[in-house]
Design goal:
Elements lengths: L1 H14 L26 H4 L10 H6 L5 H21 L14 E2 L16 E3 L6 E3 L3 E3 L8 E2 L3 E3 H8 L3 H7 L5 H4 L22 H6 L39 E4 L6 H16 L1 H4 L3 H6 L24 H14 L4 H15 L5 H17 L6 H4 L22 H10 L10 H12 L2 H38 L5 H22 L10 E2 L5 E3 L5 H15 L18 H5 L8 E5 L8 E3 L17 E5 L2 H14 L40 H7 L8 H21 L15
Parallel strand pairs: 7-11
Antiparallel strand pairs: 1-5, 2-3, 4-6, 7-12, 8-9, 9-10, 10-12
Helix pairs in contact: 9-17, 12-13, 12-17, 13-14, 14-16, 18-19, 18-20, 19-20, 22-24
């Protein structure tokens, strides 16, 4: 038994043979040198008594051994192989075909195939094989040492990005030094690809941004500029050029010059604004509506060089009111009171009236100046002589009248002769304390009217909302009625502001020097507007009390006769060229267009609201103002304009109570030798448009559509 164990031990010792096996090239370390001499690794990687696999010769002698020993040797062999692998970890080397940035200036060799013998690259956009000659590489440096290297083909550059492949190639590397430093040189061109511009629309780049693919580019684009858009929109057709409007120019049958007419305008506006302070009756105020003569006066002698005006009682009433508003003291006050008494008892004799005024002027010039602010400014009370009588005037003299003519040297037979005197008295009264107090109170009343308008609009909105809740179906007619009611309140407020306007001036001058005037509405209209605002603010129906007044809105025939200047726009100047106008002269004269004096200046009228709007468009077109420019900015609202300076809004805008602009500045704006500025032209256009809207509302007589009636009872 012991002998068998010893033989078995000897056999095991003989079977353990150390064999030196060179390492496999598959397990060789990457950093090991191939040319290095082989060194035995027995002492390095194995223990001294570690088992090695048997040689082939020995394995033939060991065939009788059982199978489990064979499996054990296989296991030991595999463990030895694993030990060798773990001792030297393997590192993968970068392949030459790795994607990403490449060294700046490095040229990548193209791959060759039967289809592309000169070489090919893959396009970054379409990812197709493209010949090397149809591919361009990005030279933009993403780092200091590496360029982008993305490649795009010629069709994709044109269809997708609108870039010219040949132009980029032909340009070469010509660029400014600063731009050239951003690119890698040596490629024969300078090109920054869409990916570096953050405009690449390929599938991968859009997916990285979380966007959907753009899809196929479709047909090749004829216009490279449209390549960035997946869908090209047809360009909008150019708008047709607007035709130049031809407003209708209607001649006014009056021979007044601009200065003579403006004197009458100023007298009328002052009396209309301060009628209550002057004590002038409504009848006399209405006479001032007709600038060229009351009740057709002036048509008796058409050859007169002096245009008729108002009646003698009207002139007398105005003079008494103006003298009573003067701030005088001492002897001047006593002489003025005495003159007022004499004029009041002089009847309607114009010569007697002028005789008293002449005596009063002489007394003022000998003694004193006006007290109050006018005296401090150095102004003295005076007025000119009357105008000479017309040559065709018939003089009926009495003994007292003849004595008065001989004393003054002037025979006054027409009220128009006294226009310069009344104009001078108006200028003197403007500086009095009574006028300033009236203006201050007017500003407060204007704010109150604006508050009433806002209250009326609020009540109307509440009524309409309640009406909508009570009904199941929508009634469009009631909606239209509500909108008309709101518009009526707005127009009534605008109409009422004329009652508190501190003064009125021309709307402006156009590009060719024409002067535009729009007089204030009459006293009857403004009073009715004030009554209406008071009623609607309290939720009541507009007042329709009978006041014994004439019809407020004149007929179309009456308005087209151009007698009342508050119902049309008056224009002083020459006609535009024949191709830009339509002319309607006085129907009684029946004058054709061929006989019109195109070189002379005269008065023209626009009484139709549509023609006034057309006139505003014509001015904007001729002045070179676009439709947007013809609408003035908010900053231009307080500039010089014929619209009343007291403005308010139903929507809550405060009334402008700032002081008036300097008179000299306004005179400069109306200087006929100066061309108007673009801002002044804008204000003229705005004034015409607003007056057109107001006149259209004033002339509307459909009481069923306009529940807020400012007319008859």
């Amino acid at each position: 038994m012991a002998t068998k164990k010893a033989d078995k031990h000897i056999f095991r010792r003989l079977s353990q043979v150390y064999v030196e096996i060179p390492p496999s090239p598959l397990h060789r370390s990457r950093n090991a040198s191939i040319s290095a001499p082989h060194v035995s690794s027995v002492n390095q990687s194995r223990k001294e008594n570690a088992l090695l696999p048997l040689a082939n010769s020995q394995m033939t002698h060991n065939q009788p051994s059982n199978s489990h020993k064979k499996r054990k040797r296989d296991t030991e062999e595999s463990s030895d192989m694993t030990l060798v692998d773990n001792s030297q970890p393997i590192k993968k080397s970068k392949s030459s075909g790795t994607k990403g940035p490449t060294a700046a200036g490095e040229s990548i060799k193209p791959k060759v195939s039967d289809e592309f013998p000169d070489g090919y690259h893959y396009c970054h956009q379409c990812y197709r094989k493209r010949d090397q000659s149809a591919i361009i590489r990005c030279t933009f440096k993403v780092t200091k040492e590496q360029s982008c290297g993305a490649k795009y083909c010629k069709p994709c550059l044109k269809n997708r990005y609108g870039l010219d492949f040949d132009a980029i190639k032909a340009k070469g590397e010509i660029a400014k030094s600063k731009e050239r430093s951003k690119h890698a040189v040596g490629q024969g061109h300078i090109f920054k690809c869409p990916r570096c511009n953050d405009s690449c629309n390929c599938v991968r780049c859009r997916k990285a941004k979380g966007l959907r693919p753009t899809g196929a580019s479709g047909k090749k684009s004829k216009d490279p500029a449209a390549a960035r858009k997946t869908e090209t929109k047809k360009p909008r057709a150019a708008p047709r050029p607007k035709l130049l409007p031809k407003p209708v120019w209607t001649g006014v049958p009056i021979s007044l010059s601009l200065s003579d007419a403006e004197d009458r305008f100023h007298i009328r506006e002052f009396v209309l604004r301060f009628a209550s302070a002057l004590g002038v009756s409504r009848t006399h105020v209405e006479e001032l509506e007709e600038i060229q003569g009351f009740r057709g006066r002036g048509s008796e002698d058409d050859d007169d060089d002096l245009v008729a005006w108002v009646s003698e009682p009207c002139v007398k009433s105005i003079i008494l009111g103006l003298l009573g508003m003067l701030d005088l003291d001492g002897e001047a006050a006593k002489s003025t009171d005495a003159a007022i008494k004499e004029i009041r008892h002089s009847g309607a004799n114009l010569n007697k009236l002028w005789a008293e005024l002449s005596s009063l002027r002489d007394g003022w010039s000998r003694t004193i100046a006006i007290s109050s602010s006018s005296a401090s400014s150095g102004k003295r009370l005076t007025f000119p002589d009357p105008l000479p009588p017309p040559e065709s005037a018939t003089v009926h003299q009495t003994r007292s009248g003849a004595a008065q003519v001989n004393a003054t040297g002037v025979n006054v037979v027409r009220t128009a002769q006294l226009v310069p005197i009344l104009h001078a008295l108006v200028d003197a009264v403007i500086d009095t304390d009574a006028v300033r107090e009236e203006l201050d109170s007017g500003l407060q009343e204007a704010k109150e009217r604006a508050r009433e308008a806002r209250e009326g609009l609020k009540r109307e909105n509440e009524r309409f909302e309640q009406e909508k809740q009570d009904e199941d179906k929508k009634d469009k007619s009631k909606l239209r009625r509500h909108k008309r009611m709101a518009a009526d309140i707005e127009q009534v407020l605008k109409l009422s502001t004329y009652a508190y306007a501190p003064r009125l001036s021309p709307l402006g001058r156009d590009h060719e020097g024409r002067t535009y005037w729009a007089l204030s509405p009459g006293l009857v209209e403004t009073e009715a507007a004030l009554d209406t605002l008071s009623s609607v603010s309290q939720g009541k129906t507009a007042s329709r009390k009978a006041r014994g007044r004439k019809r407020m809105v004149p007929s179309e025939e009456h308005r087209s006769s151009l007698r009342k200047w508050s119902w049309f726009i008056g224009v002083w100047g020459m006609l535009p060229p024949p191709e830009e106008r339509k002319i309607i002269r006085d129907s009684e004269d029946d004058i054709s267009d061929d006989s019109v004096d195109e070189e002379g200046e005269q008065w023209w009228a626009f009484w139709n609201p549509e023609e006034i709007s057309k006139l505003a468009t014509w001015i904007a077109y001729k002045a070179g103002l676009s439709e947007k420019e013809s609408r003035p900015n908010e900053d231009d609202r307080n500039t010089h304009s014929g619209i009343p300076l007291v403005e308010s809004s139903v929507n809550g805008e405060e009334v402008d109570d700032s002081p008036d602009e300097d008179d000299n500045e306004n005179d400069d704006c109306m200087d006929s030798t100066r061309m108007p500025t673009r801002g002044q032209l804008k204000m003229l256009i705005k004034g015409l448009q607003e007056y057109s809207a107001l006149l259209k509302w004033r002339t509307s007589r459909d009481e069923e559509d306009h529940k807020i009636a400012l007319g008859d009872s």
